Structures are given as C-alpha cells and as structure tokens.
C-alpha cells in the first residue's frame, strides 16, 4: 500500500515537473516575455526607446535593450544574428536584399512604422532662412565641406546620398561625431550647415530636446520654386524632399518577442507613441472633421 502511494506521488511529481518545464519552455518563446536587443542609428534612438518603453509597460515580463549603432553596421549585425531587430531608413540595394534573404532565410518584408526626416540646421542667430536643393547638391560636391554630418555610415549621410543619387564616398562633407554634438558645436562654424535627423530634436516635451531646439533653426528646403518644411504635413504627404520612412527588419522567423514588438509598434497604441515623439505615424493619419 505504501509502495503504491509512493509510486502515485512520484508520478504526480514527475508529471508536474514535465508540465512545468514545458510551460516554461513555451513561455520563453512567447511574444510577451523574454529579452532582445534592438539596433538603431542614433538619429532614431528616441522613437525606438519610446516604443521599447511602451512595450515593456504593456508586457512587464519582456526586456528590451536599445543599442545605438550606425545604420550600415547595424544591418550587418542583424545578418550575423547579434540582435533580433534593426531599425532602418535607407532603401536596401538589390545585393543587400539578397544577402538578407540568404543569411536570415526570410523574405525581405520591411515593417514601416514612422515618417522621419533629415533636416538642415543653422545656429539660431544665422541670417540664413532657407536652403535650396541646388545648394545641397552643389555643396556636397564642394571642397569647402560646408555640410556637417554626425559620422560616416550614419543614416543621415546614407539617406542624403540616396536622394542625390550618389554613393556616400563620392560626397564631400565634414564630421562631428554624434547629432547632439553637431547641434551644440554648430555655432563654432558660422558658415557651415548641420545635417541631423529630426527625431533628435522632435520630442515635444523633452527637456534635452528643448535645449537643442533653442540652439538652432531648421531650414525649409526650396525645390522647384516651392518651400517645404519637415512638419507633420510635409512628412505625411512626403512633400518635404528629405522625408524618410523608418522600418524594422528582423531575423526572427516565428511570432516571438521581436514580432510582437513590431506588431505593437504598428498598432494604434504604438503609432500614438510615434506621434508623441513628434514624428508622422505611418499607419494612422490625423482626421479633420468639419462641424456645421
């Protein structure tokens, strides 16, 4: 009798242990818990961190680490499985898309979530009030190197090069490492123009962003005789010439934490976070209602 009781207890214990292990394994593969790293260029760090914070609030058992890395290098790390997600803005070349599909073994499917912009800035006391596409094109070929970027391999340089239909190595420019440093040190170079990502200064109620905005003014870009601003309207309708769409790339093949985060970022809640960052949500648009 005693042996039977011991046998029953052992079976119950064994079953509970197996169930517990299975449950733990299943839980570790869920979209709402676990750990992952997101790689992002410094230019879109603010919106990436805001989305990560929102996701971790919604799913407290998840842990997301945001690591800044130049866009090109972040893409290579994604291919090497050093992170689950990379935030991108540039259009990948056919060779890069092929490398992604071969290395990751997934179809190239960018998850677009926000419209951002590359902006041209001058010190607050500058007399310059706008910049033309011709000035940008010619200036990026000039030995004077009047445009200051935050670094080589940065998303801002990549994007401007693509807009001008050039390779970054064929352009002439100056460098001050880090977008924040570009803005803070710009007044030392009165004849030069800083080139930064809008998200660096777009968060409306952030004290650090406020301080940076107080140091500069953003130049409207004149194209074909018309002036365009990097505001909600300019980005929503893609009229501002240097509007760019941010998107996620992942190497996760199943619906786990990376896919859960991407879905969250593209839902109404995630898109409201994008909007609060001062960027244009990709999946929702403000609606105007006229009352009569």
TrEMBL record:
<dbReference type="Pfam" id="PF12849">
    <property type="entry name" value="PBP_like_2"/>
</dbReference>
<feature type="domain" description="PBP">
    <location>
        <begin position="34"/>
        <end position="265"/>
    </location>
</feature>
<protein>
    <recommendedName>
        <fullName>PBP domain-containing protein</fullName>
    </recommendedName>
</protein>
<keyword id="KW-0732">Signal</keyword>
<dbReference type="InterPro" id="IPR050811">
    <property type="entry name" value="Phosphate_ABC_transporter"/>
</dbReference>
<dbReference type="InterPro" id="IPR024370">
    <property type="entry name" value="PBP_domain"/>
</dbReference>
